[in-house]
Amino acid sequence: MSIMKLIEPLGISTKTVYKYYKNKEELLEEVLYLHYNQRFKLVENLSEDENIVLRLFDIWYLAVEMAYDVNDLFHKDLHYYYPELENKIELAIGSKFAMQMENFIRKGISAGVFKEDLLPEVAMEGIYILYNAIARTDQFKKFSGSPFEILLNTIALYIRGLCTLKGIQELERYIATKKSFGEENASGKTTVPIMG
Predict the structure, then answer these.
(1) Range with top average pLDDT, 4-8, 16-20, 167-171
(2) What burial class does residue 165 get, using C-beta atoms within 10 Å of its C-beta: 0-12 exposed, 13-18 middle, 19+ buried?
(3) DSSP state, 89?
(4) CA 91: distance to chain centroid?
């Protein structure tokens, strides 16, 4: 896509764009940082007093929901045309996100909702692999399930496997109250992936 096509809906000139960005790649890099930093802020802003198991589920619920809002071609084109940029962004944001997720696992172990013998780094890598298969490949597109059903049959099952009996019970009760993305729950309110 040309810069002209990108700016057409904004009603600005290409000179305005080039005043701030040397080229399309620099603009794309800025957009990617903005997108991933906004997602990370959502993770950071989840309440500290929330149950760790439910919080971890909500983070991935939100991630899958957001992934299905992005056109499939975006990640394919990014990977094909700008692999260095994709790696650069993932390293910068991914390490920050991984640390936060590993801290959740450690807190959950301390709270008795995650198994004591877990290796947080390995546990989170498993979730990342599932998420990438769901969000960045066609691996799960061949199934007729909704994104929510895919989430429940992959990441939710994986999180359940990390849990103690106490954590499993809390997670099962919580999932029973959830509906597919954007649907209304039993109270008539639209389901939101962040508890509150």
Answers:
(1) 167-171
(2) exposed
(3) H
(4) 15
- What are the structural domain ranges in the chain? 23-177
Residue type, 124: M
Query: In 10 A of CB 49, how many CB atoms?
Result: 6
- Has this prediction a pTM greater than 0.85? no
Residues 6+ apart with CB under 8 A from 131: 60, 63, 64, 67, 155
How far is Cα 60 from Cα 162, in angstroms, rounded to an integer? 14
Cβ-contact 134, 154 below 8 angstroms = yes
C-alpha 94: how far from chain center = 11
C-alpha span between 170 and 195 (Å, rounded): 14
Are the C-beta atoms of residues 89 and 36 closer than 8 Å to each other?
yes
Asked if 151 and 61 count as a contact pair (C-beta separation under 8 A), the reply is yes
Are the C-beta atoms of 171 and 60 separated by less than 8 Å? no
Instruction: Read off the tokens for 39.
Output: 């997602």
For the chain, the residue count is 196
- Give residue for tokens 């962004």: 89
Residue 167 one-letter amino acid: G
d(CA 53, CA 64): 17
CA distance 36 to 94: 9
Q: What is the CATH number of domain 23-177?
A: 1.10.357.10
Give the tens place of pLDDT for each residue, 117-146.
999 999 999 999 999 898 888 888 888 888
